[in-house]
Give the backbone structure.
Amino acid sequence: MIRYRVFDHTADLGIQVFGRTVEEIFVNGAHALFHLIADLDQVQLTEERIITAAGTDRNELWVNYLRECLHVFNGEGLLMRECVILSLDQSNVTARLRGEILNHNRQQIKQEIKAVTYYQASVRKTKRGWIGKVICDV
């Protein structure tokens, strides 16, 4: 199964994430975000962060979760290669992210992502699994 695809959205970047379960789209959403920022093949698993996010519904939770993932990079300089969802319900998520502090000798930034927006954000179940959609400011 394809983990994600990027689609054009005026001056922004759209990401559509796929998974067999809702947990899998949250894992794949973190992967997509970090993979669009840098090549994850060179990221070592030397750091770990536990992140939490909340929302009034699953769509708001999705955006807030991806914002927390982005903050790990923008706020701490950490590139995360691995994500495990520790708990997830309709309004709360806790995840463990593993990776390393950006090392310019081994990693290059491919693209700057400034923010994850609520615009057209959605999480929905389909006949084939789950799809999460989000627009990012670049």
The longest strand covers residues 115-126. The chain has two helices and seven strands. The chain has a mean pLDDT of 94. Helices lie at 22-37, 58-76.
